[in-house]
Design brief:
Number of strands: 10
CATH class: Alpha Beta
Structural class: alpha/beta
Strand order of the largest sheet: 6-7-8-3-9-10
CATH architecture: 3-Layer(aba) Sandwich
Order of helices and strands: EEEHEEHEHHHEHEHEE
CATH superfamily: P-loop containing nucleotide triphosphate hydrolases
Oligomer: single chain
Length: about 230
């Protein structure tokens, strides 16, 4: 599903060069639920941005389903982000003037899908995350955990084979975070979707089948679920 080969990303901060991702090589199989763990600043979010096509590496290659996304022109990289990968952010990134159902529908709407198809898919996903009854509410009318479940539904609407989640429980209390992780794990298993979770939380990472530790831009160790 995903293969990284000697991927490096460096940023310039003033006169200082910061190596956010340092010569990372990694393979993730289709349908895996993988957690990449590490403290803030270790390079997790940069790695997610590279795999998600939000940024490009300085060196190395990233293959997703056999295609080297580092070689895609900007237009095709935009389509890759829109159609093939779902991203769940720590801060939800819901649009406040849109209802729950409109937020979930947005990626489909941008593709110009027929309205009936859009509404059928939205109903299915909001049912999956147990929020159909909240479909006409606005983001400021629902809880943080519900907002994150809306964000998960939105990330899944295009039926992506790959979902990337960046600290999805970071703004939630432990009980709500557990509920969100249960939803993600159940959806991953049911649909065979590949989930890559970036987190500093051992509790969140415990839902993954493989946990990879990251430090100072490098992958340091990994462990399998027993």
């Amino acid at each position: 599903m995903i293969k990284l080969d000697s991927v490096t990303k460096t940023y310039t901060l003033g006169q200082q060069q910061i190596v956010a991702v340092n010569d990372v090589s990694l393979t993730i199989e289709p349908g895996e639920f993988v957690a990449i763990m590490g403290k803030s600043g270790c390079g997790k979010t940069t790695l997610l941005s590279l795999v998600g096509g939000l940024d490009r590496p300085d060196k190395g290659h990233i293959w997703v389903e056999g295609r080297d996304i580092t070689q895609l022109p900007d237009v095709k990289l935009t389509r890759y982000r829109r159609d093939q990968v779902g991203i769940v952010f720590q801060f939800f990134n819901l649009i406040p003037i849109l209802t729950v159902s409109e937020n979930v529908a947005l990626p489909y709407t941008l593709q110009g899908r027929p309205e009936r198809e859009v509404q059928t898919r939205v109903k299915e996903l909001l049912g999956d995350v147990e929020l159909w009854e909240r479909r006409n509410h606005y983001p400021d009318e629902i809880s943080g955990g519900e907002m994150q479940r809306v964000a998960i539904a939105r990330a899944l609407i295009n039926r992506p084979r790959l979902v990337l989640a960046d600290e999805p429980t970071g703004n939630l209390d432990s009980r709500t975070g557990q509920q969100v992780m249960e939803v993600m794990a159940e959806l991953s298993e049911r649909h065979g979707t590949t989930f890559v979770l970036m987190t500093h939380s051992r509790e969140a990472a415990s839902y993954a089948s493989r946990r990879i530790h990251m430090s100072d831009g490098c992958l340091s160790s990994e462990e399998q679920s027993t």
